[in-house]
Each structure stands twice: as C-alpha cells, then as structure tokens.
Amino acid sequence: MFWLVKKEYLYDFRYKMRSLNLIFNPFFMMAPYVLLAQNYGAATRVLGSMLLWSWLVQLIYGISYGIESLKIEGVLGMILMSPMHFITYQFFYYIYLVLRQLLVTGITLVLTWLFLGITVDNIVKFLITLIIGSVGLFCFTVGYSSFVLKFKKMQGINTTLQNVFGFLSGYTIPITKFPIALRFVSYLIPLTYAIHVMDIEYMASPILIGLFVLVSLVWLIIGILFVNKNLNGMKMRGDFEQW
C-alpha cells in the first residue's frame, strides 16, 4: 500500500498542472451553486452535499473508470499477474484517494470561507461523515467497477451517471422531497446516507446506520462476485488491453 500511494503522489508532483486542476477545480465548480443557494438560505447545505458528491465522483473515476485507462495503457494485465488480488489493489488506491480528497476538501473549505464567507456546519463532524461515508462509497464503486470490466467504453456515459447518482442521493434536493418510489432507489446508493446524516445535523439513528452498512455490504459482495467472474472471463479471452 505504501508504494502504491507513493507512486501516485510522485505522479501528482510530476504533472503539476493536472494536480493543480484537481485541487482548485472543485471550488470553481461549486461556487456558482453555493452563491445561488445563498439566496434561498441553503448555501451551507449545498456546499456540504456537493463536497460529499465530489468524493463519489473521484472514487468512481479513479477506481471504476480507471480500469479503462489501465486497459488502454496495457497495465491491467501486469496488475493481474501480481500476487495481489485486483480488489486489494482497488482498496489501496481508495486509501490514496481518501488522502488526496481530504487535502482537496480542506482547500475547498478554506477558499469558500475566504472568498464567499460560507462554510459547512460543524466541520469536525462533517469530515468524520466524509471518511465514514467514503467506506460505503468504496463498496459501491467496487460493485460498479464490475460493470466497467464487463462493458467496454463506459467512459462515454461517465458524466451522465455521476449526475444521476448525485441527484438520487439528494445533493441538490433533500431526498425527503422525493416521491416514495424514487426515495427507495435513493437508499440503494451509500452517498444518500452521508448527505442525509448531514441534513439531520449528524443525529443518525441505529436503523439508518444499519441500512448504510447493509447496502454497502451488498454492493461489496456484488463487486467481489462479478469482478472475479469478469476477470476470469478476461483471462480466458486474453482481453487485458483495450484499443
């Protein structure tokens, strides 16, 4: 894990413009929405929910859609030949993403406070929610990555799916405003629980925590089963590269 994290950070330092884009882009992306929400007294809520959503975006892009980059670069085959299971590799990469996203989130919070005068309520509890919620998001992205392994060229619908997941999780409108049927779908996405906990001022009930754990475990089990199935199929076909 140490060498994987070190390799990624060396890559970030080597390509400084890419790193600066990752660090400062969230602020400029969120600022218009936060300023608009300020007119309705919801700036703090929108800032927090969009920060939570940005973690899902980065995990999907890094862990799931990153598979396509590994196939294009011809690296996936070498990773699969290592003694480390592919899901273990995904977990170590998730650790790197958590460390990076904590830095990005901290910078975004500082910039919104300096330039907009807005921050989230109870930063400590918010950051704890981010970290705990990211565990569920990792399970979700492992499950989702099984589809990326199965179906090629899913990068083309990346933006659409990210916004669908964000909307269903309540990053713009609280899920309590949704119809019951749509709310049921929302509770299948772990991000929903993190945003909802923030909305109820971090007063999570045991039932809500239990549902979060259950949904996360279901996604992880789906991921383990179908990732293994699709990897075995790729080994039989020799389909480790994508052109």
Descriptive report:
With 243 residues, the chain is an all-alpha fold. It contains 11 helices and no strands. It has helices at residues 2-14, 16-38, 43-64, 66-72, 76-81, 86-116, 123-150, 158-168, 180-186, 190-199, 206-237. Helix 1 crosses helix 6. The longest helix is centred in the last third of the chain and has 32 residues, at 206-237. It is globular and about 55 Å long. 32% of the residues are buried. The model has no long low-confidence stretch (mean pLDDT 86).
What is the percentage of strand-forming residues?
A: under 5%
Q: Which quaternary structure do these chains form?
A: single chain
Number of strands: 0
- Secondary structure class reads mainly alpha
What gap, in angstroms, lies between the N and C termini? 29 Å
Order of helices and strands: HHHHHHHHHHH
Mean pLDDT, to the nearest integer, reads: 86
* Main sheet summary: none
Helical run tally: 11
- The percent range for helix content is over 70%
Based on CA atoms alone, the radius of gyration comes out at: 18 Å
